[in-house]
């Protein structure tokens, strides 16, 4: 029968392993705040277990486990992300786009927020109705795919129009090949226009994705957003926590 000391250490060991396994799962799903808490509690238990062990031969084993989790790939990146997220939650960025100006591609406006921590994206845009507007959405999807980020789902909330069903299906098949699920939801009374990232970033679009003047499909600017002339509009970038504070 094991003595109370060894049982205590065994319980610490099991608890630490469970916490660290949970941390890894949360980490992979982009839930960095929760993952960090689990990592902290798990490593605390490993330290406690290390101190509780009387057999010196086992102490190096605990030190190795602890160091492996502290040195886990992405640990510093995760720490930097959480620090940046706190900064983002304190500020509002407004980008004014002048009528007929150029150089305002989606990538330049908010591409740097499409980083390795984004796992899902939700787009509210009631006016994905014309072929030109659908192409704007396709260009956004191309940007997301090109960033090679771990996005698993893109949800689009828009007004219903059966004539665009075929266009959405083509985009859906293209995204499927890149292991991204496209979900289309129709809301006839939808008005607000914004993009929400799983990291908490909220991109408010005064005109939705339709910030560009129409152009001919044979023109060079049709496939290069930086060459397109823009409508007069404003893009507002903030964090969901700040948005909640401002509206509460």
TrEMBL record:
Provide the MIT domain boundaries.
Answer: 15-72
Question: InterPro entries in the record, alphabetically?
Answer: MIT_dom, MIT_dom_sf, MIT_domain_contain_protein1, MITD1_C, MITD1_C_sf
The MITD1 C-terminal phospholipase D-like domain covers which part of the protein? Answer: 103-239
What Pfam families does this protein's entry cite? MIT, MIT_C
Under the heading SUPFAM superfamilies, the entry gives: MIT domain
- UniProt xrefs under PANTHER family: MIT DOMAIN-CONTAINING PROTEIN 1
Q: What is this protein called?
A: MIT domain-containing protein
Q: What is the lineage of its organism?
A: Eukaryota, Metazoa, Spiralia, Lophotrochozoa, Mollusca
- Which gene carries the instructions for this protein? 106076145
